[in-house]
Every structure is written in structure tokens, then in C-alpha cells.
Amino acid sequence: MNKLIPVELLEKYLSGNCSAEETILVKEWYESFEQEPNHIDTLNTAAQKQLEVKIYNRIIDGISVVEEDETPVKVIDNRNAGFWYKIAGAAAVLLIATTAGLLYNNHTPKTEPIAGSDVQQIIAVTNNSNHICKSILPDNSVVWLSPHATLKYPKVFDSKSRMVSLSGEGFFEVTKNPDRPFIITSHTIITKVWGTSFLVRDNKASRSADVSVVTGKVSVSIKKKSNKNLLSINKDEVMLYPQQKATYMADAQVLKPGSTKNNPELKIWKHANLFFDNKSLKDIVPILNATYNAHIKVANEKLNHYLLNADFSGLNLPDVLEALSKALNIDYSFINNTIELNQPIN
After folding, report:
1. CB 5 within 8 A of CB 35
2. What is the C-alpha to C-alpha distance for residues 221 and 248, in angstroms, rounded to an integer?
3. DSSP assignment letter at 302
4. 75: which DSSP letter?
5. What is the pLDDT of residues 184-232, one digit of tens each?
């Protein structure tokens, strides 16, 4: 059992007032719980959110961006970002910044009542942007919604399961909870999860749907009217493990197994460790393209001359793009298979 440290000490670190000894204490505490429950869970929801905001502001106050002629643009240095991206998460299994979710405001959350219920409510999130938008669920699971995707989930999960629905494409990192399976219903398929990361694509406009597993284990079945008890395992479910996928062919109404080995589409979800020390954006973009097998291009030549000091430890490409967007005050769009970086129109 790891020794708890006062929340006041964390806030003292965030404000930059820790002594060298206190800084070592905080980092040693963090290192000690990487494989055990996160003690941030002891805070109530409001306190967690308040701490997340402070952590995020601390990160943003720390990235340094200057033009090559040494004219200051912003004074930021996020060399400790990787550490705080990890410590901010209320579920250690994710190791992803819940604070990054505060950046993603290009989606439309709505609250809808469930039919026949005066208590339960459904949150509907639609991504109307050209970005990949991040949503954090009540159990601290994380969902990245691709453009035009919609996610619906209850404001409070049921005690026996965690039910959500998806239209479009979404990448999930699910908090482990063996006692409460995570179940996704989409247009044609049902995906059951116990704690893992995977990509689901299923919408009305397509004649196929697929689930690709990155980590953990999921089961996939065809959506039928007879699927009444989703908590039980049925004989038609296809079990998937890392580097496996299942594709539903609507015309034949069958699930076809497959492999995700050497699948370039999944590399943008890779958690990489990238460090940039006075690197220009024109030098950073090729590194991002090689690391995540992406096709990023800079549409505005002026952006190529920005220099960046940054620590992107443990981040996937959507998180890196959001950090760059905030630090450099730039916009980006997913256009077909290209990610285009632009200066925002004021």
C-alpha cells in the first residue's frame, strides 16, 4: 500500500512553490502507484475537476514557443507535461491526460431524458468539427470521436454495466472494471469490453462495420432484436485479442475475422514519447509523420518558423495535435487522409 500525500502538496507543486525535497517526494509518490489504484480517486468529482484545471493551466503556462528570429510569441515550456498528463488521470489504466479533454470544445454535448424515466439522463456528444474530439465518461473511460460521430451515454452508469451507443467512428480507452462490462451498441454491431483500447467504425452510410483491438480483449456480435440480455455471452459472439479485428458485412450479414498487423490507421493511437528542444515546426512535422504514420502538412509557411520546447510523453497523435493547437494558436483539419495545419482566422 502506497503512502498518501496531501492534496495541498500537489497544488503547491502545481503553483511552482515546492522545494527540491518536496518535488522529489511528489515524483516518488507518483512512481509508486503506477501499477496500483490512483489516489486521486479519493477526491470527489468537483475536486478532481478543479485539480485537472490547475494541472492543465500549469502545463500551458510552461511551453515555450518563439519564432526563429527570437521574437517571443508565447512563453511556454511543458517539459513536465508527460508527468502531469499521467498524474491527472483518475484511472491509472489510461495514462492519458484527462486535462486534455478540457481543450476539446469542438463538440456538442446535450442532455436528453431517457424515455419513461424521470431520473436517468443521457448525454449526447456530436463532433461537428474537423478535429478528433475527446470525451471523458463517468467512469473515466476516454473516447476520441472522429468528425461527424455521435456518442451517447448515461449521466450515471448502471451498477451492473456501462452502456453507451455510437454512430460513426470512435477510439475507446476503457477503464478496467470486471464487475461492470462496458457495452457499445452501434448501427449494426454490439461490442463488449472489460478494459482495453480499440477502434469502432459503424454508421448508417456504410455497408460494413468493424472493430479493431489495440490492447485487451473484446467480443463483437451482430445487432439483432433477439439480443435482449447483453450481459450474457451468446454463441454468435466473436472474441478479439490485440492485433485482431472483426468486420461485419451487411450484405452477407456475417462477421469476418481479420488482423490489424501492419495497419497504419491504428498508429495514430500509439502512445509515443517525443521531446523537442528548440525544434522548428518544419522539423517536428516529419517526426510526427514518421512516428504515427500520418500525413501532416503545414498550409501556412509562417508556421514552419516557430520553435517549440515540448515534452509529449505518452501522448497519441490527437493529443499532440491539440497541444500544438493550443500552444501555437493554430487550427488543424482532417481532410481525407491528410491533416492540415493552419493559422486560425481571427
Report:
1. no
2. 9
3. G
4. -
5. 999 899 999 877 888 999 988 788 899 999 988 898 988 887 666 666 6
Whether 128 and 250 share a structural domain? yes
Please indicate, yes or no, whether residues 111 and 29 belong to a single structural domain of this protein: no
First to last CA, the chain: 52
The number of angstroms, rounded, from the C-alpha of 205 to the middle of its chain's C-alpha atoms is: 25
- Distance between CA atoms of 32 and 128, rounded to whole angstroms? 41
Say if CB 295 and CB 339 are below 8 A apart.
yes
The reply to whether 277 falls in a domain is no
The count of other CB atoms within 10 Å of the CB of residue 27 is 14
- This prediction has a pTM of 0.64
CA distance linking residue 172 with residue 238, whole number of Å: 18
Q: How many domains does the chain have?
A: 2
pLDDT band at 166 (very low <50, low <70, confident <90, very high): very high
Say whether 118 sits in a helix, a strand or coil: coil
* 238 shares a domain with 121: yes
| Alpha-helical runs (H) found in the chain | 7-14, 20-32, 45-60, 81-88, 281-292, 317-328
| Distance between CA atoms of residues 267 and 294, nearest Å | 8
What count of other Cβ atoms lies within 10 Å of the Cβ of residue 89?
25
Task: Kindly state the cell numbers that stand for 178.
Answer: 470486471
Q: Does residue 258 sit within a domain?
A: yes
Provide the domain limits for residue 198.
102-263
| Residue at which a domain ends, from 211, 232, 263 | 263
Residue indicated by cell numbers 436517468? 120
Q: Which residue has the cell 493550443?
A: 326
Confidence of residue 308 (pLDDT cuts 50, 70, 90): confident
Among 244, 263, 282, which residue terminates a domain?
263
